[in-house]
Design brief:
A: 295 residues; mainly alpha; globular; B: 286 residues; alpha/beta; 6-stranded mixed sheet; 4-stranded antiparallel sheet; 8 helices; disordered C terminus
């Protein structure tokens, strides 16, 4: 039994995959806090699909993945952040155009070439086997960088997230902050894509923050909790992926969804208990004061 | 307290959204230590004027000086600004203290440490204590009464220790008691030397009690004490509707001529006087 549990740790590829999944989970949870609270979840979803186009193009052209997909991702992010500011189109429609077109480019190239269906699956759903040593450095590097940026720009980012209209009136450089958040999101998507898969990233960005929201009313606590939940999802999901032989993107998302459902059930039950207790108290008080409830 | 030099000097200001002028040829000087209400119909440019003072209106012509310093596009003077409470996302996960700390987000630097320094923390607490919400710092903003919510956003503005405080409709959507509390608090701050400028569409229970009123409808129609400004001709020019001004001693009541009758017949459907131009029968003295 013990050897069954410890076996995978003898494989370098698995240890690498586990590190990348765990760190990427935490990164997505941390960045997701700002994305979800800014109501930008749809942008996260779109951006991950958009990056897929860049990944395929860089594969076909033989470029380095991070160079090709990275450049593509940053450009899409800036385009999205720019179109989202234009009021007359409607941000969601504009984002839909940019990202779906980009995704379609990837699909078109793949169906034309028909050579790399395996990598296609990996890009969409994540893959344990594909993690190279350089991927570990990239995800660690991006996480450290993003954490530093969030650390020093925390107050500004929080104000922007809370009230985008008023923040610039208090001297927050709103356009810079928008761009910064878009770039952070793009870097997160690119660094996590290999292990989580394009179609699953959005969920791992959204679910930890939403789960943490059920547990706290403070933004600072939310940020820590979402990071912790994301990390846990990455770790547990990756182990499940190995033992169940399922794509890691799927197991990580399912882990996150389960944690969310558990939290929702627990917090709802607690709330019901509190209201019932409060009602019980008020009945006792009114009985004590000699008045009767009319039925 | 006041040395007589202006807190706000606006000269021939023109602001436009997509070519359509919202403010035109606005010239106005407000002295230091003043307490001014800006009134006017919806779309008169009240909020735009506040935004222009905050340096947030692109494409404007004319000049604005605050305490003698020119406000350029994109240059934000250090003022206290309280937005309309309706615009706040009450479900957002922030505590009272986190909101007030936002007022300190930019202290001359782009990047700063994520937590408050000890002096800033003390400043926040002292302010919350002063506003009577000292023990609510850890509360979520939704779990507060209307008056407490208004105080939180007032605290966010005051924590910057501004000499000029701008408030957008601070008495809209709050109950009578909160309205009294807010006006009382603002009067107190004004008494200590802060220049206060607020917008309101409540002529009777807010504007009539302020020392000075600006009647705005794209241009400044009139500026002065309520007694001198609230005349049928000025109100007609501001609101484009005929109004009746009733005076008795210190008490001024303004009523829409048609509205007097409509209010009586509509009383059941609009108990609160949904249209601001109709007098809500405010029998209050100063």
């Amino acid at each position: 039994m013990l050897s069954f549990l410890l076996d995978p740790f003898h494989y370098d590829f698995f240890v690498r995959g586990l590190v990348v999944a765990t760190v990427a989970g935490g990164l997505c949870g941390m960045v997701g806090t700002f994305i979800v609270m800014r109501r930008m979840s749809y942008i996260g979803h779109g951006l991950s699909h958009s990056v897929f186009g860049g990944a395929v193009v860089s594969y076909v052209m033989g470029w380095n993945f991070y160079l090709g997909a990275g450049l593509w991702g940053f450009i899409s992010a800036l385009l999205i952040s720019w179109t989202a500011r234009r009021r007359q189109i409607g941000a969601d429609a504009a984002i839909g155009i940019v990202t779906t077109a980009s995704f379609a480019i990837g699909v078109a190239i793949i169906s034309k070439a028909r050579r790399f269906t395996k990598n296609f699956d990996a890009a969409l759903f994540g893959n344990i086997l594909g993690v190279q040593p350089e991927d570990v450095f990239v995800v660690l590097g991006v996480t450290v960088l993003v954490a530093i940026v969030i650390f020093f720009a925390y107050k500004q980012l929080l104000f922007m997230t809370f009230d985008r209209e008023v923040a610039p009136l208090y001297g927050i450089p709103d356009r810079w902050m928008d761009t910064l958040l878009s770039l952070i999101l793009a870097a997160t998507v690119i660094a996590s894509m290999q292990i989580l898969g394009v179609t699953m990233i959005a969920a791992i960005i959204v679910v930890p923050a939403v789960t943490a929201r059920l547990l706290t009313d403070s933004f600072a606590h939310l940020l820590f909790m979402a990071t912790a939940i994301g990390t846990l999802c990455g770790l547990v999901g990756m182990l499940l992926a190995y033992y169940l032989d399922v794509a890691p993107g799927a197991t990580i998302v399912l882990t996150a969804a389960s944690i969310f459902m558990l939290t929702l059930t627990a917090t709802s039950a607690r709330k019901r208990l509190q209201t019932e207790r409060a009602r019980g108290r008020s009945v006792i008080e009114s009985a004590g004061s000699g008045s009767f409830e009319r039925r | 307290m006041s040395d007589g030099s202006p807190a706000i000097e606006i000269e021939r200001l023109r602001c436009a959204y997509d070519g359509a002028a919202v403010l035109e040829d606005v010239t106005l000087a407000i002295r230091q230590g003043a307490f001014v209400g800006i009134v006017g119909p919806s779309g008169a440019g009240k909020t735009t004027l506040l935004r222009a003072l905050l340096g947030a209106m692109p494409r404007q012509v004319g000049s604005i000086r605050i305490f003698g310093e020119e406000v350029a596009n994109g240059h934000v003077p250090r003022l206290g600004y309280v937005p309309q409470l309706e615009t706040v996302d009450w479900n957002f996960p922030v505590t009272v203290r986190e909101v007030v700390a936002m007022g300190l987000a930019v202290e001359g630097r782009l990047f700063s440490l994520p937590w408050l320094t000890r002096t800033h923390r003390q400043r926040v607490q002292t302010l919350l204590d002063r506003l009577g919400i000292g023990d609510l710092g850890h509360r979520h903003i939704r779990d507060l009464s209307g008056g407490q919510q208004q105080r939180v956003f007032l605290a966010r503005a005051l924590v910057r220790e501004p000499r000029l405080l701008l408030l957008d409709e601070p008495t809209t959507g709050v109950d009578i008691k909160t309205r009294h509390d807010v006006l009382h608090l603002l009067a107190e701050l004004n008494h200590e030397g802060t220049t206060v400028v607020l917008t309101t569409h409540d002529l009777n229970s807010v504007a009539a009690h302020l020392p000075q009123v600006v009647c705005l409808n794209r241009r400044v129609v009139a500026f002065g004490s309520p007694a001198s400004v609230f005349t049928p001709s000025v109100l007609q020019a501001t609101y484009g509707a005929e109004m009746v001004v009733l005076r008795q001693g210190d008490l001024t009541v303004i009523a829409d001529k048609l509205g007097v009758f409509r209010d009586i017949t509509d009383q059941h459907s609009h108990p609160e006087g949904a249209d601001h131009r109709h007098a809500a029968i405010p029998i209050e003295t100063r």
